[in-house]
C-alpha cells in the first residue's frame, strides 16, 4: 500500500507521543539532517531528544498538513517539554525523510481578543490550481509589508474590516486595524517586530507558510507565518516566533534556515 509523504510525516510526529518505533522507517538514517538547534544531528540526536522527554508527558495533535513537492508542512499542537504550538517541515528524497526544520512557541492559556486560539480555524485545502499564485502573493506580502514596512500598501493584500482577516496570534484581535496598531505599539515601546529576510514560502492550494528571519524584542528570531488566502487576498493568519540561540549553544551546525 502506498503511504503518502504527509502520512509518513504525521506518523513520525505521532510517534513522539505513542512511542511507535515503526515510524522511524520513514527516515533515511544516513542522510537525516536536523535544523532544530537544540537537537543533535541525525537519528541519534532525535533518539536522545525522545529519551529526555519526561515519561508519558508528550502529546501531539497535527491540526493541519500540506505538501509542496518534496516538502511536507505540519501545524502541530504539542505538549513537548510543556504546552507548545508550532510548525514542522520535512523534506523527502526517494520517499524518505532526509531533513527537518521546525519553529515552536509557547501555547497561550487563553483565547486572543477575538476569541481565537493559536490553532483553531479553517483546515480544508482548496484551490490547488492556485498554489503558485498564492505562494507568490504570500512572498510579495512578506517582502512588501513585513520586510519593507510599507503598511500603506497593506490593503493590497488584506481587505479592511475585522470579518475579512482572522488572526490567531494570542495577543492580537481580528482585522488589519489591530495588526497595524500592534505593529505601531511594539515599535513605540522599543520592541519592534522586524523582518529582515524571507528564506522560503511553501504552499498547497489556499495555504502558504512563510519562513523568515528577523528581530523581536531585541532577540534574533525565526518567524513562521501560515496564511490562508481566498480570491487573491489573505484572510487568516497563524504564526510561531522562536528565539534563535547564540551559535555557542547549538547542538548541530546545520543552521536554523540551512538549505531552505
UniProtKB/TrEMBL annotation:
Pfam families: SnoaL_2 (PF12680). The lineage of its organism: Bacteria, Pseudomonadati, Pseudomonadota, Gammaproteobacteria, Oceanospirillales. Gene3D superfamilies: 3.10.450.50. Residues 12-100 form the SnoaL-like domain. InterPro entries: NTF2-like_dom_sf, SnoaL-like. This is Nuclear transport factor 2 family protein.
Amino acid at each position: 500500500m502506498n503511504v503518502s509523504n504527509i502520512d509518513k510525516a504525521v506518523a513520525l510526529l505521532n510517534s513522539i507521543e505513542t512511542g511507535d518505533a515503526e515510524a522511524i522507517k520513514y527516515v533515511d538514517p544516513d542522510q537525516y539532517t536536523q535544523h532544530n538547534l537544540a537537537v543533535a544531528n541525525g537519528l541519534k540526536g532525535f533518539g536522545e531528544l525522545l529519551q529526555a522527554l519526561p515519561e508519558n508527558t508528550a502529546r501531539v495533535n497535527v491540526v493541519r498538513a500540506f505538501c509542496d513537492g518534496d516538502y511536507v508542512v505540519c501545524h502541530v499542537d504539542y505538549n513537548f517539554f510543556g504546552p507548545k504550538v508550532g510548525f514542522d517541515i520535512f523534506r523527502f528524497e526517494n520517499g524518505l525523510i532526509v531533513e527537518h526544520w521546525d519553529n515552536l512557541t509557547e501555547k497561550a492559556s487563553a483565547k486572543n481578543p477575538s476569541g481565537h486560539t493559536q490553532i483553531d480555524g479553517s483546515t480544508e485545502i482548496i484551490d490547488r490550481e492556485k498554489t503558485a499564485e498564492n505562494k507568490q502573493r504570500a512572498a510579495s506580502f512578506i517582502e512588501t509589508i513585513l520586510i519593507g514596512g510599507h503598511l500603506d500598501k497593506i490593503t493590497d493584500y488584506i481587505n479592511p474590516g475585522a470579518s475579512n482577516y482572522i488572526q490567531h496570534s494570542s495577543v492580537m484581535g481580528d482585522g488589519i486595524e489591530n495588526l497595524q496598531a500592534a505593529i505601531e505599539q511594539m515599535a513605540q515601546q522599543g520592541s519592534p517586530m522586524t523582518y529582515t529576510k524571507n528564506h522560503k514560502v511553501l504552499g498547497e492550494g489556499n495555504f502558504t507558510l512563510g519562513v523568515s528571519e528577523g528581530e523581536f524584542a531585541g532577540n534574533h528570531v525565526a518567524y513562521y507565518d501560515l496564511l490562508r488566502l481566498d480570491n487573491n487576498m489573505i484572510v487568516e493568519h497563524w504564526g510561531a516566533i522562536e528565539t534563535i540561540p547564540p551559535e555557542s549553544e547549538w547542538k548541530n551546525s546545520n543552521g536554523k534556515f540551512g538549505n531552505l
